[in-house]
Design goal:
Layout (H helix, E strand, L loop, with lengths): L5 E3 L22 H4 L12 E10 L1 H9 L7 H10 L3 E4 L7 H5 L6 E5 L6 H9 L4 E8 L9 E2 L2 H4 L40 H4 L10 E7 L16 H4 L18 E3 L26 H10 L22 E9 L2 E2 L2 H13 L4 E4 L1 E3 L8 H7 L1 H12 L6 E2 L2 E5 L18 E6 L17 E4 L4 E3 L2 E3 L4 E4 L12 E4 L2 H22 L3 E2 H10 L1 E2 L8 E5 L5 E5 L11 E2 L1 H9 L2 E6 L4 E4 H4 L7 E8 L2 H7 L1 E6 L2 E6 L3 E11 L2 E4 L2 E3 L2 E12 L9
Parallel strand pairs: 7-9, 7-11, 8-9, 11-14, 13-21, 14-15, 15-16, 26-34
Antiparallel strand pairs: 1-12, 2-4, 2-5, 3-4, 6-20, 9-10, 17-18, 19-20, 22-25, 23-24, 27-30, 28-31, 29-30, 31-34, 32-33
Helix pairs in contact: 9-13, 10-12, 13-15
This protein binds calcium ion (3 copies).
The site of one calcium ion (CA) has 8 residues, from loops.
């Protein structure tokens, strides 16, 4: 039988052996076995005792909503009576956006509770016998993983931003994943430009308050000095009465989001827990770390930066905490689904998920995932159907691909309507832990751990916020983690930047168009994937990590925030390497077969752009020869005649004069092949 556990994806770095798929999983391929033939849609492993999720027919849904003791079906009432049900409750809150939820059949899901003493499988079978019950789902509990946290060193905390940094956050230079300067002191083999391209994008937007990102994870430390100003706040509860559900959404005191384990507003991040082996498996700071990557407050003179953390003027995107882990405990599928429902109902437009069913890419297909995780899936579909950002029709869902070095992304991320994010290191290569191939959509920096002399070096991990109260963070508010968990919030952050830019500039798009922008605003990764690179196994021994299997399998490429903004603008991007002349043949970039560029009339380079990039130009035969002395980004305007007839000697008949923005992106050669 398949063994799934739901886990957060922070890498346990010491376990980063060149792990190939566990042989025990190979050939298991028990897809048929995953979905039992009966109405019982999943297996009872890791299921919560004393409760089941039931998907009922319309008549029963209506009857149970009125009186939970009478379904209108005598057989079902007899079963309920025999089991001595404690309670029958709708899974979802139909009082809020009920009509929209009905379209996803969410009104037909109920949670039934009964004595823990009863045999769960027997009860499930009894319900499955009722003609009124269409599906029975075991309430699978999410399992706590071990997460490696590397607190900031005193030296890290003493870091001060150089003058060339765009913001004054002192530890920004440690965040190579936003802007990689190729410092070998951070990572041996680190390459300039192997980053998310944040600095370029920040010239156009740094965030917008009206974009809300729901972080489905451990609780976010909302009081963190570098996060508190970018937390989403439910003002009715903030200004309301303690112990009272002031806004009537079904949850008391939900000021910063939802604790989906206890189903209240008491978000926590520092609850300790030890398993039976004495290992610490309590809160790790994972949710706070992920939140910082998306929206730590920029330019506030403290700590770090966030991809969409604003510019210090109060314009960062906001983080809503959806807490699915709490100390040693976790949500089941039911509460996780309610957390997703909450994010949809309370205004999040991006769902950030650094969790998944471990190894499930080898077991599920899209079809079996939809069936076996039906309650959660329907909540996801509902979330995606809502339009919580004025700039976008629909919402978007982004997942980490998983950390088991498997050639398939874990579900739910692998599902075709969600984005699954793979992870690269500071040298731009795939990380040793990242899942790849089937179901993977796009790559982003997730961090890598290597040896530096005799010691492990974690500076190539992702640096972000931590909760200092939490065991393992050593009293530090900042530190390192690595994993596809850390790559995923870079993509959520870029999605948030794109929406921010759209809001700021009156642009509208659909969620499908945003997915398309995320998947197409990429730099090439495949050209560099030949041969191998040196990595280190669990015991610290060097080995050669073969790059070949990753070629063509990390998704469409490495996401670049600047390109994403440019794609939204619909502007043509021209890539230039510093110090090398580039022949910009306008006809190759503009026009179509029907409307050819017949004559370039003029091009305008604003003085500030000319100076910033050190641009020199030449012009001949409809080609602009460009050379940039400095790295950077600038917009020029090209005017040309399309569709006319070039009669020679600079004369033209007919056609249409077109004026277009062209974005010049000038970069140092980072030796990773063509990068557009
Ligand atoms: Ca409330
Ligand atoms: Ca309250
Ligand atoms: Ca900061």
């Amino acid at each position: 039988m398949s063994k799934f556990k739901l886990s957060l994806f922070a890498l346990v770095a010491m376990a980063a052996v060149a792990c190939v798929a566990d042989p025990a999983m190979e050939g298991e391929g028990a897809k048929a076995d995953l979905i039992p033939a009966t109405k019982i849609i999943n297996h009872s492993e890791s299921a919560s005792q004393g409760s089941l999720l039931l998907f009922v027919d319309e008549a029963t849904a209506e009857a149970w909503t009125i009186d939970a003791t009478r379904s209108g079906n005598a057989q079902l009432d007899a079963i309920a009576s025999e089991i001595q049900l404690f309670s029958v409750e709708p899974l979802f809150n139909m009082d809020i956006n009920g009509d929209a939820k009905r379209q996803f059949d969410m009104h037909r899901w109920f949670v039934v509770k009964f004595s823990d003493e009863l045999n769960l499988e027997t009860v499930a079978k009894q319900f499955a016998e009722s003609s009124s019950i269409e599906r029975v789902q075991y309430n699978t509990m999410l399992k706590r993983p071990k997460v490696q946290v590397i607190p900031a060193s005193d030296e890290d905390l003493m870091t001060r931003a150089e003058n060339d940094e765009p913001f004054n956050d002192p530890q920004l230079p440690l965040q190579w994943h936003y802007n990689n300067k190729g410092l070998q002191s951070i990572f041996a083999g680190s390459k300039e430009g192997e980053d998310i391209g944040a600095y370029g994008a920040w010239k156009y937007t740094t965030g917008n308050r009206d974009v809300v990102v729901a972080v489905v994870d451990e609780g976010v430390k909302y009081s963190h000095e570098d996060l508190k100003d970018n937390m989403w706040v439910n003002t009715a509860e903030l200004n309301g009465t303690s112990g009272v559900d002031d806004d009537g959404n079904g949850y008391k005191d939900d000021i910063y989001g939802l604790n989906a384990v206890d189903l209240n507003g008491d978000i926590t991040w520092d609850v300790p827990y030890y398993n039976s082996k004495g290992e610490y498996v309590g809160d790790s700071g994972h949710g706070t770390h992920v939140a910082g990557t998306i929206a730590a407050v920029n330019n506030n003179g403290i700590g770090v930066g966030g991809v969409a953390g604003g510019d210090g003027s109060g314009n960062g995107v906001r983080i809503m905490s959806i807490q699915i882990f709490d100390g040693g405990g976790s949500s089941g599928i039911d509460k996780c689904a309610k957390g997703v429902e909450y994010a949809a109902d309370m205004g999040a437009s991006i769902l950030q998920n650094s969790w998944g069913y471990t190894d499930s890419g080898k077991q599920y297909t899209d079809e079996t995932y939809m069936k076996a995780c039906a309650a959660e899936y329907q909540a996801m579909k509902y979330f995606a159907s809502k339009s919580n950002c004025a700039a976008m029709t629909g919402n978007v869902i982004i997942f980490a691909a998983g950390n088991n070095a498997l050639d398939a992304a874990d579900y739910p991320g692998a599902y075709n309507e969600f984005i699954a994010v793979t992870a690269t290191g500071p040298d731009g290569y795939p990380t040793t832990y990242t899942n790849y191939k089937a179901g993977c959509n796009v790559a982003a920096p997730g961090g890598e751990t290597i040896k530096a002399g005799a010691n492990w070096s974690y500076k190539g991990n992702v640096y972000s916020t931590l909760p200092s109260e939490t065991e393992g963070t050593d009293g530090k508010d900042y530190g390192y983690m690595a994993g596809t968990s850390m790559a995923c919030p870079h993509v959520s952050g870029v999605a948030a930047l794109v929406l921010s830019y759209a809001l700021d500039n009156g642009i509208t798009l659909t969620n499908t168009e945003l997915y398309d922008i995320l998947a197409s605003s990429v730099r090439n990764i495949d050209d560099s994937l030949t041969g191998s690179v040196t990595r280190y196994n669990y015991y610290g021994s060097e080995y050669q990590f073969n790059l070949q299997p990753y070629k063509g399998n990390m998704g469409t490429g490495k996401l670049d925030a600047t390109l994403a903004i440019m794609n939204l603008r619909g502007a043509t991007c021209v890539p230039v390497i510093v110090g090398q002349e580039f022949a910009f043949r306008v006809g190759d970039f503009m026009g179509t077969n029907d409307i050819n560029v017949t004559m370039v009339k003029d091009f305008v380079i604003p003085e500030d752009v000319k100076e910033r990039l050190g641009i020199t130009t030449d012009f001949f035969n409809n080609t602009i020869y460009l050379e940039c002395a400095k790295a950077g980004i600038g917009v020029i305007t090209v005017k040309y005649i399309a569709g006319g007839k070039n009669v020679g000697g600079g004369a033209n008949t007919g056609g249409k004069l077109i004026e277009k923005e062209v974005v010049i992106i000038s970069r140092e050669n980072n030796d990773n092949g063509a990068w557009l």
